[in-house]
């Protein structure tokens, strides 16, 4: 992580996120053009969802998710992991250095056939979000529906 960059929010942060989104869109286009993933149904919407999830946790915009970003991601999802488990997750996903993983590593993991712990956790989060209980007062019941 670069110590010289000003990571303050506001206009500069918005520009940083816009640039990051452009870079990730370019990578998404590469995956859309790749014949290896052409059989994947609903690929554009999946890539868009993965891009948003990746941007949410790559706050400094350097293009890599490090161990602390991954820790924050999993804690937010309600699945806290130990430092050793996090290192194992990163090693499993990463194709380069053992300390971080890039967006392309993330996409290969999410779209690939191999099973990964992080992939299962993210899918679990999506299912939990889909099954949220309705808010507000309960629906009125007829007398015949009462026990």
Oligomer classification: single chain
So, CATH architecture? Orthogonal Bundle
Order of helices and strands: HHEHHEHH
Class from helix and strand fractions: mainly alpha
Which residue ranges are poorly predicted, with pLDDT under 50 across at least 5 consecutive positions? none
| Tally of separate helices | 6
User: What is the number of E strands?
Assistant: 2
CATH H-level superfamily: EF-hand
Strand ordering within the main sheet:
1-2
User: What is the distance, rounded to the nearest whole angstrom, between the alpha carbons of the first and last residues?
Assistant: 61 Å
CATH class term: Mainly Alpha
Write down the domain tally: 1
> What helical percentage do the residues reach?
55-70%
Explain how this protein is built:
This protein has 147 residues and is mainly alpha-helical. It has one domain (11-132): Recoverin, domain 1 (Orthogonal Bundle). 56% of the residues lie in helices and 4% in strands. It has 6 helices and 2 strands; from the N terminus they run ααβααβαα. It has helices at residues 11-33, 43-57, 67-76, 83-93, 103-111, 117-130, and strands spanning 64-66, 100-102. The protein has a two-stranded antiparallel ribbon. Helix 1 (11-33) runs antiparallel to helix 2. 17% of the residues are buried.
């Amino acid at each position: 992580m670069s110590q010289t960059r000003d990571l303050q929010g506001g206009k500069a942060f918005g520009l940083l996120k816009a640039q990051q989104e452009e870079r990730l869109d370019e990578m998404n286009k590469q995956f859309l053009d790749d014949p290896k993933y052409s059989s994947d149904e609903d690929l554009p919407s999946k890539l868009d969802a993965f891009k948003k999830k990746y941007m949410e946790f790559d706050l400094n915009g350097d293009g890599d998710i490090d161990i602390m970003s991954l820790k924050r991601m999993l804690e937010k999802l309600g699945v806290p992991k130990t430092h050793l488990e996090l290192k194992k997750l990163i090693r499993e996903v990463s194709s380069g250095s053992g300390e971080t993983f890039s967006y392309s590593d993330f996409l290969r993991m999410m779209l690939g056939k191999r099973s990964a712990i992080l992939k299962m956790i993210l899918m679990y989060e999506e299912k939990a979000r889909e099954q949220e209980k309705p808010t507000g007062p309960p629906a009125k019941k007829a007398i015949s529906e009462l026990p």
